[in-house]
Write a structure and sequence with these properties.
The chain is mainly alpha-helical and 142 residues long. It has two domains: 6-79; 83-141, no CATH class. It has five helices and two strands, in the order H-H-H-E-H-H-E. The chain has helices at residues 6-18, 25-39, 46-79, 99-105, 107-120, and strands spanning 83-89, 134-141. Helix 4 (99-105) packs across helix 5.
């Protein structure tokens, strides 16, 4: 996240302090949408719209990294894991190439698929021949 300087941040603190801490989902959506609408008042083009989508994505990612991940980690420590999930990358479908071609071209996915199949054991070896790009194998509840 491209953090802004303390001086620039201080310009918005007064406005942020006016926002109630118990907004409904609809109210939060309205405020965010209103800020975006304000940014479009002087016109917009593809670049501006694309930048706004990028801001949404980065804000979402930052929220996930800074808030949700620590929360989930804490809950896993308290309650234990629920699932063991193995991600398997196996190839392209729709005639875009077969599994062997895909694995040759992409060492990352080849390694990922190999690791997942090793963890899953022989039970999942048939997945190496499937035609999907990604599959998720849920081994079970822990």
């Amino acid at each position: 996240m491209p953090y802004i300087t303390k001086q620039n941040r201080d310009k918005y603190e007064y406005l942020l302090n006016l926002i109630p801490k118990d907004l409904s989902d609809g109210e939060l959506n309205f405020l965010i949408s209103s800020i975006i609408k304000k940014q479009l008042e002087n016109g917009y083009n593809y670049q501006k719209l694309n930048s706004i989508i990028g801001v949404f994505e980065c804000a979402k990612t930052e929220f996930y990294i800074r808030v949700i991940t620590p929360y989930e980690t804490e809950k896993i420590e308290i309650n234990g894991k629920l699932y063991w999930i193995f991600f398997v990358a196996t190839g392209f479908s729709s005639g875009l190439g077969n599994t062997k071609d895909f694995a040759r071209r992409s060492s990352y996915f080849k390694q990922l698929a190999f690791s997942s199949l090793q963890v899953g054991g022989d039970k999942y070896s048939h997945l190496a021949n499937s035609s999907c790009l990604f599959g998720i194998v849920v081994e079970g509840i822990v």
